[in-house]
């Protein structure tokens, strides 16, 4: 059964939700993940469907997707292609798994190519994130990650069929009443190759993890991080803010918010976070790990020590991104000693 999307409802509840003519939101489960679900959007595409994002390659996710598609009179073989916003497992890997079975095309932002190439290497040769944490002074996090290293999972990742370039015009439903043209917009920051898809005629923005309505996206959590993820993210926010306003269709959280409103909130959040990060350096905390340890996290102002391992890792990486922007702005100086980056005001 198709239900009209209700921004005030439980956005994670299984089902299929009409959020615009010819556009259906399908929340897919993320077991053991604080995000709880990821929104996949099904767009009418002639006699088939184009999906924006795909979900995590898990049995529960596949079952939920198949059930939701049945609710709009379709099935997995009717998916013609996936337009994936970025490389993270909860967005990309189910597209790869379903392509093996049904042969639909998978498209990904060209900026994600270094990450895909890195993931093609044996895990023992991939230390980008661990080395990043060591440089941040977070040896205790690295030791725990190495102790509880997850299964390799190389089979989850393969190259896409198509690389999406910034500004690409993607025709969906050609020759049909629901025909639409999506514009791909490169929005690095969350990952270096993140893209969003704008539908100007319908005033919609499929925002992936670039603009989320209730949380701030992580920065630089990827196999090959960019040089300055926060600087990239803020530039990408400015780009999206410069475009005509639209309805936000995010990967996590409810639909319905206006893009400009949420972008303004995210910019204000990071301005405040830069101030508190600078204050921590002025108080004598010199590494990203030390600074992260004295800041509060999540909407609930959780102490760093109360975060789980994964979120301590995210917090440390995000703090390093803020510190590098402070360096770029000339507010702190940085230098490396014994492989650890130290910051002083």
TrEMBL record:
Gene3D superfamilies hit by this protein: Ribonuclease Z/Hydroxyacylglutathione hydrolase-like, Winged helix-like DNA-binding domain superfamily/Winged helix DNA-binding domain
Entry-linked SMART domains: Lactamase_B (SM00849)
Keywords for this protein: Hydrolase
Recorded superkingdom: Bacteria
Segments forming domain Metallo-beta-lactamase: 37-252
Residue runs in coiled coils: none
GO molecular function, a single term: hydrolase activity
InterPro entries, per the entry: Metallo-B-lactamas, RibonucZ/Hydroxyglut_hydro, Sec-metab_biosynth-thioest, WH-like_DNA-bd_sf
Protein name, per record: Glyoxylase-like metal-dependent hydrolase (Beta-lactamase superfamily II)
């Amino acid at each position: 059964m198709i239900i009209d999307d209700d921004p005030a409802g439980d956005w994670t509840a299984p089902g299929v939700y009409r959020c615009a003519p010819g556009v259906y939101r399908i929340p897919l489960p993320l077991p053991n993940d604080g995000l709880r679900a990821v929104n996949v959007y099904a767009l009418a595409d002639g006699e088939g469907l184009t999906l924006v994002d795909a979900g995590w390659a898990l049995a529960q996710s596949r079952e939920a997707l198949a059930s939701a598609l049945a609710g709009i009179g379709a099935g997995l073989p009717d998916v013609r292609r996936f337009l994936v916003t970025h490389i993270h497992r909860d967005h990309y890997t189910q597209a790869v798994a379903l392509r093996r079975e049904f042969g639909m095309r998978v498209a990904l932002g060209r900026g994600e190519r270094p990450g895909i190439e890195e993931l093609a290497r044996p895990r023992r040769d991939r230390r980008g994130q661990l080395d990043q944490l060591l440089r941040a002074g977070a040896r205790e996090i690295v030791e725990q990650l190495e102790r509880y290293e997850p299964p390799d999972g190389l089979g989850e990742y393969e190259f896409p069929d198509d690389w999406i370039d910034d500004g690409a015009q993607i025709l969906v439903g050609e020759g049909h009443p629901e025909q639409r043209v999506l514009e791909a917009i490169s929005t690095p920051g969350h990952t270096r190759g993140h893209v969003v898809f704008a539908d100007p005629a319908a005033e919609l923005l499929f925002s992936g993890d670039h603009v989320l309505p209730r949380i701030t996206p992580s920065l630089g959590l990827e196999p090959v991080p960019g040089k300055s993820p926060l600087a990239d993210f803020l530039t990408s926010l400015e780009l999206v803010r410069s475009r005509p306003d639209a309805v936000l269709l995010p990967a996590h959280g409810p639909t319905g918010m206006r893009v400009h409103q949420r972008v303004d909130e995210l910019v204000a959040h990071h301005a405040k976070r830069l101030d508190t990060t600078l204050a921590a350096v002025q108080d004598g905390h010199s590494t990203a790990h030390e600074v992260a340890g004295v800041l509060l996290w999540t909407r609930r102002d959780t102490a760093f020590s109360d975060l789980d391992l994964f979120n301590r890792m995210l917090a440390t990486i995000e703090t390093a991104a803020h510190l590098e922007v402070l360096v770029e702005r000339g507010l702190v100086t940085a230098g490396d000693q014994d492989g650890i980056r130290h910051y002083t005001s």
